[in-house]
């Protein structure tokens, strides 16, 4: 689970005289995205040059976890936006995340470049048991979401450029361009973590360092970023997110046409907050081992793929975690 996705519905029955009226709430489920170094957007772009990167990611989540251990089920609470309350549990079954994104980088000076990240497709299929513990408990797969996500703009500056060293720092902003008030099948606002957008303006700071251990043979890289979230109009605030990556690139036979890589990726986030209160079953720590390959099909075009394999997954309380993550993409320089 990276950011916790999926929505749901945990119905609460309210007695009004002798009539039972369902007051639906939305679960604090888990969402995911691939967090890694693709090797196409991290460095500095030549002035006047444009790099266009198109990627597709799929992350299936169907493993229940309690803390750092496997669990027989993932019971998570829900948020009732109409009453402003965090309410009882429902049972998570499965969440499939499909994400497509375009990244555009433009070189302004030999040391400064801008990158625009446009997540134009966010599809989330969600399955869960709702009304758990009542006579109306039932299975539902009608509360997934789909839409345009939050655009990010980042400025990158190369503080150090040497034959063996590259150090790049970045500062950016995540804009609330994605929908964050989509409704579930009962007409209530869906769970925040399943929405295509967060509804908030967030600040992002980042750093990237590359070192040529053996020129033309072996490179090492390290990167990190920290996203500072703000509260949206629904009084919901996602936890600030820390990403750390480190790995090696090895050109096959000393050629740059095909590069294999191996990296380790870590994501950590605290609980989300609703009206200043921690939201249970949000946040955690995830560590992945990610092998990958990049093929330079022409001087300006490269294809790449990476597979994220879970090494350590810790969730606050209980939630679903990804079985794996897959990203495929193509990058072209104009």
Describe the protein:
The structure is a single chain. The chain has 334 residues and is an all-beta fold. It has a single domain (12-333), classed as Porin. 0% of the residues lie in helices and 62% in strands. It has no helices and 22 strands. The chain has strands at 12-16, 19-23, 26-27, 50-67, 69-70, 74-80, 85-107, 112-130, 138-140, 145-147, 152-161, 165-174, 202-214, 218-228, 236-237, 241-251, 258-269, 272-274, 277-279, 284-298, 301-322, 325-333. The chain has a 17-stranded antiparallel beta sheet that branches. Strands 15-18-19 form a three-stranded antiparallel beta sheet, with no helix packed on it. It starts with 11 loop residues before the first strand and ends with a strand. 44% of the residues are buried.
Helix-strand blueprint:
Layout (H helix, E strand, L loop, with lengths): L11 E5 L2 E5 L2 E2 L22 E18 L1 E2 L3 E7 L4 E23 L4 E19 L7 E3 L4 E3 L4 E10 L3 E10 L27 E13 L3 E11 L7 E2 L3 E11 L6 E12 L2 E3 L2 E3 L4 E15 L2 E22 L2 E9 L1
Antiparallel strand pairs: 1-2, 3-6, 4-5, 4-7, 4-21, 4-22, 6-7, 7-8, 8-9, 8-10, 8-11, 11-12, 12-13, 13-14, 14-16, 15-18, 16-17, 17-20, 18-19, 20-21, 21-22
């Amino acid at each position: 689970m990276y950011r916790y996705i999926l929505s749901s519905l945990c119905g609460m029955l309210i007695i009004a005289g002798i009539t039972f009226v369902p007051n639906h709430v939305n679960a604090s489920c888990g969402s995911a995205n691939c967090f890694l170094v693709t090797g196409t957007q991290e460095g500095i772009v030549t002035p006047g040059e444009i790099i266009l990167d198109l990627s597709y990611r799929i992350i299936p989540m169907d493993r229940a976890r309690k803390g750092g251990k496997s669990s027989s089920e993932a019971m998570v609470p829900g948020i009732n936006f109409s009453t402003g309350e965090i309410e009882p549990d429902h049972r998570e079954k499965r969440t499939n995340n499909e994400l497509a994104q375009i990244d555009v980088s433009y070189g302004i000076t030999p040391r400064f470049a801008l990158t625009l990240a446009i997540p134009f497709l966010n599809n989330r299929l969600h399955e869960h048991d709702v009304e758990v513990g009542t006579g109306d408990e039932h299975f539902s797969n009608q509360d997934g979401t789909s839409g345009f996500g939050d655009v990010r703009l980042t400025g990158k500056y190369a503080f150090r450029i040497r034959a063996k060293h590259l150090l790049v720092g970045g500062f950016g902003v995540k804009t609330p361009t994605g929908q964050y008030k989509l409704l579930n099948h009962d007409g209530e606002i869906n769970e925040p973590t399943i929405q295509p957008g967060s509804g908030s303006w967030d600040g992002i700071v980042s750093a990237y360092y590359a070192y040529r251990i053996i020129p033309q043979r072996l490179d090492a890289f390290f990167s990190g970023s920290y996203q500072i979230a703000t509260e949206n109009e629904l009084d919901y605030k996602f936890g600030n997110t820390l990403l750390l990556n480190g790995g090696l690139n090895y050109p096959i036979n000393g050629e740059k046409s095909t590069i294999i890589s191996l990296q380790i990726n870590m994501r950590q986030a605290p609980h989300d907050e609703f009206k200043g209160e921690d939201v249970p079953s949000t946040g955690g720590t995830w560590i992945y081992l990610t092998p990958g390959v990049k093929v330079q099909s022409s001087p300006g075009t490269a294809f790449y793929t990476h597979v994220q394999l879970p090494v350590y997954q810790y969730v606050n309380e209980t939630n679903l975690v990804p079985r794996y993550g897959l990203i495929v993409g193509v990058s072209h320089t104009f």
